[in-house]
UniProtKB/TrEMBL annotation:
<feature type="domain" description="Beta-lactamase-related">
    <location>
        <begin position="38"/>
        <end position="337"/>
    </location>
</feature>
<feature type="signal peptide">
    <location>
        <begin position="1"/>
        <end position="22"/>
    </location>
</feature>
<dbReference type="InterPro" id="IPR012338">
    <property type="entry name" value="Beta-lactam/transpept-like"/>
</dbReference>
<dbReference type="Pfam" id="PF00144">
    <property type="entry name" value="Beta-lactamase"/>
</dbReference>
<keyword id="KW-0732">Signal</keyword>
<dbReference type="InterPro" id="IPR001466">
    <property type="entry name" value="Beta-lactam-related"/>
</dbReference>
<dbReference type="InterPro" id="IPR050491">
    <property type="entry name" value="AmpC-like"/>
</dbReference>
<protein>
    <submittedName>
        <fullName>Beta-lactamase</fullName>
    </submittedName>
</protein>
Length: 358
């Protein structure tokens, strides 16, 4: 017979074990992150892990601004680079849901003079299978890097380059495709890309600390970006955000990125059928499937499927991993392109997966 005294003792032991496990988990996470983010006086980062919508880990490392000696906080705003592609892909699916476009449409339906535009579909732009030239690999990129470019000018910059392969023949990661998608979003919606993302995604998901990147506007709690040189850290190279545009020009926080993940899970932005289009694998022309949906790499951790994407832009790197079966989301944001959170975030996800499955 279990007495009240025994029950209290058992509960005390259980509570003590939970505290010990939580402390052990936190130490493992700290130790892993500090293998890369180990200079408290240098640029740093923010890492957050959530399980079923609740934070299991949320910490900042290093400095948000070296000149002001300002410590990083979990609330700091970072440029997220190519994680922008998730938002561009969902914006396209929102327009499809509204009946303003179809992912199987040829891009010539929207951009009349695009070379061979009748053979390239929106779907192929989303999945990096279009074959069009990636503008970041063009030698002339330096001539426009600091110019204010309209979306049409950006498309004109690369559209006449020879294609790398026939549409649908292979998967090859491509920034140009997502710039074209941003231009199509503007043409189909009648809004600028910035306004469309702000009104239809940021505001609906409650992402009040997310922005289209700018170096001029005052961004509260902005983390400043850095490069590392032989003699030490330097401020990031200045570029015009109209160049990466819809392929890499958004800013956000770890907390807002969790709100983004929740909005996707709860079908706040899209109906379930449209949402699932982003998270399924598609075949190439030869029938072979590849590990990318619309704006997400579809991989696995310990054999359990995940959705992930990283980002890299002057002065910043980012990485996010989501494990749907366990509702685990891990985000890492860095304000120096010398520190990559990619492998750390994947390892944090693995540790968390093992922890919640115990």
């Amino acid at each position: 017979m279990i007495t009240q005294k025994t029950s209290v003792a058992l509960l005390s032991i259980l509570f003590f074990c939970c505290v010990i496990n939580a402390q052990s988990y936190e130490k493992k996470m700290d130790s892993l992150i500090k293998t890369e983010f180990n200079d408290p006086a240098g640029p740093g980062g923010v890492f957050m892990v959530s399980h079923k919508g609740k934070n299991m880990y949320r910490k900042a490392f290093g400095k948000a601004n070296l000149e002001l000696d300002a410590a990083m906080t979990p609330e700091n705003v970072f440029q997220i680079g190519s994680m922008t592609k998730q938002f561009t892909a969902v914006a396209i699916l929102m327009l499809e849901q509204q009946g303003k476009l179809n992912v199987n449409d040829p891009i010539s339906k929207y951009i009349k003079d695009y070379p061979s535009g009748d053979k390239i579909t929106i779907h192929q732009l989303l999945t990096h299978t279009s074959g069009i030239k990636d503008f970041t690999k063009m030698k002339t990129i330096s001539t426009i890097a600091q110019k204010e470019m309209k979306p049409e000018m950006m498309v004109d910059f690369f559209k006449n380059e020879p294609v790398d392969f026939s549409p649908g023949d292979k998967f090859e990661y491509n920034n140009s495709g997502y710039v074209v998608l941003g231009y199509i979003i503007e043409l189909a919606s009648g809004q600028t890309y910035e306004d469309f993302i702000k009104k239809n995604i940021f505001e609906k998901a409650g992402m009040s600390h997310s922005y289209y990147a700018t170096d001029r506007q005052i961004i509260p709690k902005r983390a400043y970006g850095y490069h590392q040189k032989e003699h030490g850290f330097v401020n990031k190279t200045v570029i015009s955000f109209s160049v990466p545009f819809s392929s890499g020009s958004l800013m956000s926080t770890a907390d807002d990125m969790l709100k983004w993940q929740k909005a996707l899970n709860q079908n706040t932005l899209l109906n379930p059928a449209e949402t699932q289009k982003a998270f399924r694998k598609y075949p190439l022309n030869n029938g072979e499937e590849f590990n990318y949906g619309y704006g997400w790499h579809l991989k696995d951790i310990n054999g359990i499927p995940d959705r992930e994407h990283g980002g890299s832009i002057f002065g910043f790197k980012s990485m996010g991993v989501y494990i749907p079966s366990e509702d685990i989301y891990v985000i890492g944001l860095s304000n120096c392109d010398c520190h990559s959170p990619t492998e750390i975030v994947r390892k944090l996800a693995k540790i968390t997966l093992e922890s919640v499955k115990k």
